[in-house]
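Structure ticket #2291
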Amino acid sequence: MKKSMMFSFIFILTILIGCSNTQSTKNELEEISIMLDWYPNAVHSAIYMAEEKGYFEDEGLKVKVEMPADTNDPLKLAATGKVDLAISYQTQLLMSRAEDIPVISIAALVRHSLDGIMYLKDNGIGSPKDLVGKNVGYPSSSVSEAILKTMVEYDGGNANDVKLTDVGWDLMPSLATKNVDALVGAYVNHELVLLKKEGYDVDMFPLTDYGVPDNYELILVTGEDTLEKKEEVFSKFWKALTKGQEDVKNNPKEGLEVLFNNENDSFPLDRDVETESLNVLLPLMDDPSHPFGYQEEKVWKEVAAWLYQTGVLKEEVDANSAFKNIISK
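Resolution: structure written out below.
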């Protein structure tokens, strides 16, 4: 009887110690924050997959995902250390560095441009030069202006003869109602997919076909001071995220289900749209010659030079100081 009681005591004690160790391990997870570029959508699937599968926890991390109140917030908050990481745009980071905002890119999330000139096919537009004499909507962005000018002039047209109308973020309604003939600043994985689903006959001219250098559409950003303190932590974050991305690639349906479980109530997702969006995104996030997230010096130099040549940047920016790879080639 005494042996039995002793065995029971040891068994219970072992369970309690195990629970205590598990709780202790969870309490020791290092908390880091990441701010998205927008509301949760297909491009963020790997983040939620890594969380769902426990990959962040495996790396000793507890990741807090935040949404921006304004599209300019991610870079600003990363620069000041109010968030550890942020998802932003290569062009926006270079413009910020020109204003001495101390942000730096540590990985490329989407390796290729998503932007372009979107148009209704029945408007008689066969190439960018056909926009001469027409009305193009855009979200009041100097980069969008530079894109339009570069593409139209590369195609042999006079960009000064194209009317630009600031439509804010009412991009789709302005094209659908034919208030404008084309758009700059609309994305191939979002507005194009949505408009096609609604039955509009739309298409896009890719940037790279008409003189605009390819760019890292979405990048992972942090503040320079934060990087000095947390570079090792960020490497662990990207290691976990890479596993999440692999899972999404191998099983997109599962990746989307995890995403839908994390959608924001204020921004409900359309299942068909996000499914098609992910189909568009996955090839643009990958490069068989480089690890997921690796950034090339050539891309940073070409984009920085183009921004300066088009007058978006008033002074040249050192492209090499704008990024640092946390991924080994």
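Closing remark: The first strand starts at residue 30 and ends at 35.
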